[in-house]
Amino acid sequence: MGVQSPNLMRNKKTCRAIGIPTIDLLMDRTLVSQLIIRACEEHGFFKLTNHGVSSQIISRIEEESYDFFAKPGFQKQQAGPLTPFGYGCKSIGFHGDKGELEYLLLDANPASSIPQTTKAISNDPEKFSCVVDDYVQAVRDLTCDILHLVAEGLGLADKSTFSRLIDDVESDSVFRVNHYPPMDQNQKVLNPISKFQMHDTNLPNNATPSRVGFGEHSDPQILTILRSNDVGGLQICSRDGLWVSVPPNPSEFCVLVGDAFQALTNDRFKGVRHRVMANSNKPRLSMMYFGAPSLNAMVSPLPQMVSSNSPTLYKPFTWGEFKKAAFSLRLAGRRLDQFKSS
Ligand code: GA4
């Protein structure tokens, strides 16, 4: 499979190399679909090159985001608090999880009118909405392509089985921009223990502790399409429980399997646990499109994914029911457990 640059990770007990699957969308379609399926099964994660999203669309949203985050705090606060969309700082979601980041969370459905939040985000809300819509539309199309490829690879008769869930006017998809401020050098040297959480068990004993930018979790939705600037920090948890750093590459997209895809495929794909360690001297900016179904769509296993050898693992449930449960469990793991069939 198009595996590139093995990435050495150090762990207290072991040191291992892992290849992060990198898939070139310009390769032969049948091959691409097989590689995507294998990556979703083995890692719940892959990188995409030659994804076809125009660099202009990407740089415009990136510039708007940098402009917003460069504003003084009191101005950014005017785009908050989250209701559920808007500006957030240090608190992740509504239930007390903390992170060393600030972010914008926006509705990823085509805006019929410019929401109040957008007026507080930009001096030119129409331009901002347009830039967001262009980016979101491009990554939504890309997500639908990937979902078509998955359906093809799984041999489903209806190739839009997955894509139609997010290509829906009622889709609950969201768009998020995360800004991880640079780590203050003085803090890093003077007060490393009390200031920063010691979560990084992969670090050798003499290394500088890492700051948790976004705590470990899986995304609740179907697929996440992530793009970052050239500052690293994203780590994924491998199947054997090791944290693997994902080298940043602004020209690529990272694709993450979410909990809903795990349920739809009856656990053939697994949601990938990931986190961001914000310990760079440079600011990290990442943009995520979270592709989700409508609130009343069923996300329990597709009949085609169930057989006598693979009986259904989940009771029937809607995305709305799962989302409610996932949000109340915060960043905790095993959110799907309460939907397991007995
Ligand atoms: C993780 C993925 C998306 O960023 C998000 C997050 C959401 C939020 O920030 O409001 C959650 C988190 C995410 C999962 C558990 C709950 C909800 C924060 C949190 C503690 C927008 C999403 O959909 O789920």
TrEMBL record:
The chain holds residues 1 to 342 of 530 of the full protein. Keywords: Dioxygenase, Iron, Metal-binding, Oxidoreductase. Residues 170-293 form the Fe2OG dioxygenase domain. GO terms for molecular function: gibberellin 2-beta-dioxygenase activity; metal ion binding. GO terms for biological process: gibberellin metabolic process. Its EC number is 1.14.11.13. Belongs to the iron/ascorbate-dependent oxidoreductase family. GA2OX subfamily. The keyword Iron applies. It catalyses: gibberellin A1 + 2-oxoglutarate + O2 = gibberellin A8 + succinate + CO2. It comes from Heracleum sosnowskyi. This is gibberellin 2beta-dioxygenase.
